Amino acid sequence: MSKIVFATHNENKLREVRAIVPAGTEIVGPADLHFYEEIPETGDTLEDNALLKARFVGKMFGSDCFADDTGLEVTALGGRPGVRSARYAGDACDSLANMRKLIDELSGLSDRSARFRTVIALVMDGREYLFEGIVNGHIIRSPRGDGGFGYDPVFVPAHYTQTFAELGDTVKNTISHRAQAVAKLVDFLYHR
Fold first, then answer.
1. What is the DSSP letter of 25?
2. Which positions of the chain have pLDDT values less than 70?
3. Residue 54 CA, distance from chain mean position
4. Annotation says 169 is catalytic
5. How far apart are CA 96 and CA 138, in angstroms?
6. Can you give the pLDDT at residue 1?
7. CA–CA separation, 45 vs 3, rounded Å?
8. 62 Cβ contact partners less than 8 Å away, ≥ 6 residues apart
9. Three-state SS for 76?
10. Active-site annotation holder among 32, 44, 64, 69
């Protein structure tokens, strides 16, 4: 496997996955194929969204394709924001607004445990496969760090004292939920 399409317009995710996969594997994003239209994300679960995106882009280009969906699942909030993580504070909101809403909702709560969960869907040779990665941790009371993206400045992974935004890409790309799911995808692609 030397080239595969990753159905995402998120440049941060694209950069992260490109840094994780083995040398010689070319990850192609929709923009590399001059495709800029919105990719549907209307599913009720991470699995649904990942499959929708992989099917849509794979069909569009007649190629094998994978997509991911990631959610931050907070115990005290019953698993929210979950599948709505990117739009938690509203469809037009950004990461800062999402983090603010999350911190506000956790105000006064002692249980701040959470987990990041990534589901990757691969559509290949007419078959569908799912790979999951999970990293447990907790939400801090205010953002720290300049790296990463999304909720990284408020999430401290288990066994660490720094947020994903403070740990830097090298460490994050070794231990993260996405790194785990990508490792399973790569293992499948190279050893099936």
1. P
2. 1
3. 14
4. no
5. 18
6. 55
7. 28
8. none
9. helix
10. 69
